[in-house]
Fold this protein.
Amino acid sequence: MAGSARTLELGVFIPVGNGGWITSTNSPQLPATYEYNKQVTLLAEKLGLDFALSMAKWRGYGGETNHWDVTLESITTMAGLAEATQRIKIWGTVHMMIFPPAIVAKMSATLDQISGGRFGLNLVSGSNPYDLSQMGLWKDLNHGQRYDLGEEWIKVVRRLWTEDRVDHKGTYFELNDCMSYPKPSRHPTIICAGQSDRGFRFTVENCDVAFFWGSDDPASIKRALRAKEIAREMNKPDFKTNALVTLIPGRTDEEAQARLDHYNAGVDKIALATQAVEYSTDVSVTINQAAQNFLKQNETFSAVLPGTMAGSPETLAKRLAYLVNEGDIDSVTLIVPDFIGDLETVGREVTPLLRKYGIETFAASKAASVEEEAAR
Ligand SMILES: Cc1cc2nc3c(=O)[nH]c(=O)nc-3n(C[C@H](O)[C@H](O)[C@H](O)COP(=O)(O)O)c2cc1C
């Protein structure tokens, strides 16, 4: 493989919701505080990760763990983290349904200044009716209409970033001689967390990166390749993809499996059931693969997201490399149980092992320089 290394960008899905992405009384009970998320992001920067991304979530699922009852708002969190960091890219999430485009255009331009051009946006077309209607902000649109709204939304944002004054009368938004200054110094990276064909088409046409759930099973690989296939059909052969991956490391495969089993033994069934009810009330539940995964998680009483990979650093590197190489993936967003200890393991131990599968990361070069320093 020498000479043909694939460059992989690596980032962290920072845990702005309490408990992170494991719904269990036995998993690390991560606090959804700014201080903790700052610690995680500073560590990610030190480890050589390329980006930190926060989700947007407005309502939790209760249960014994009070899962996600506490969530930090994404964009304001990233504003703080932009100031706290130097190099790492800082990406925040917005629901296009609830944030008017002119507000996000200006917030992004402001964040571009705070971060020195490191800010990016993750766009979400949906969520679920409970999450947003509790604030009176859910729009009763079907799946296609949400992407119609998204198309209008992003076109307006782009115009506000580049034009002096914007007039727009569309189906969802109206702007009258709208002025938006400052302009961002560079085009903020835009990713979209939609993994349906309609979502991928929206993303290829309007964004820079398609963001979807990833693992090493055939369905996940197929989904990843589908994004690239749609990009080629739309004449964008260089379009990039980003897979959201959950890793549970252990010193050995047995130890990692024991961690997973322990988390599953403490699964919070009430929180999972609430999550399933909330997503099943959405009219697009059968199309929305994220919703389908939440329903599956509830049916199987799994404390972790479907596709979670547990193993030793060797095993994780092998499985991750399989996903990246077979799925033609350009970047990976990491979820781990403990965003300090486990993130260190992935950053320092797993990334160097990806090299034997032809995958180069900035984190691996950082890990090598830390080792060299220690040896001196
Ligand atoms: C990788 C990924 C990240 C997501 N992040 C969020 C999020 O931060 N907030 C949220 O409400 N929904 C999030 N979602 C779920 C979306 O609400 C939902 O999957 C999407 O809007 C449905 O579009 P689709 O049917 O095209 O997949 C995420 C989904 C994926 C696949």
